[in-house]
Amino acid sequence: MINKLKNILGKFPERKVRILRKLLKVDSLKAKELFGDAEERYENIRNKAAEQVKKLGNFSKVYSSKLDSLTVSFKFLESTGIINPEVQAKLKIGLSSISKLQDKLNNNALQAAYKREGFIIH
């Protein structure tokens, strides 16, 4: 979700420039009034988003008992060292896949929450 938010916020300056150019042709004073402190507003949005992410922490994770069981099992097998190195490498790949899946679940849940609150996310 953080990456998606960064992408969205990253597109604002590009869009702002396009709109600003068009508006400058029509009314330069109004354009300066509207876009004068845009960078400051973008920075405030970024800071607020970062603060909200810090507040959420582990509570924002979607719990899946099956993913949790897989993760615990893989980490146990990895830490014991009773399996050969070839399988250890596959376990690491499996753990990273589980982590990616967990991130996707978290992002989907966060997007659903934002949609319920009325925020639009593309």
Structure, explained:
The chain is mainly α. The chain has two domains: 1-58; 61-122. Helices cover 83% and strands 0% of the residues. The longest helix is centred in the last third of the chain and has 33 residues, at 85-117. The protein starts with a helix and ends in a 5-residue tail after the last helix.
Largest beta-sheet details: none
Overall helicity = over 70%
Briefly note the structural class of the backbone.
mainly alpha
Number of helices: 5
SSE ordering: HHHHH
Distance between the termini: 11 Å
Q: Uncertain regions: pLDDT < 50 for 5+ in a row?
A: none
Which descriptor suits the 3D outline?
A: elongated
Q: What would you report as the Rg, rounded to the nearest angstrom? A: 22 Å
Number of strands: 0
β-sheet strand percentage: under 5%
> What is the typical, i.e. mean, pLDDT?
77
Number of domains: 2
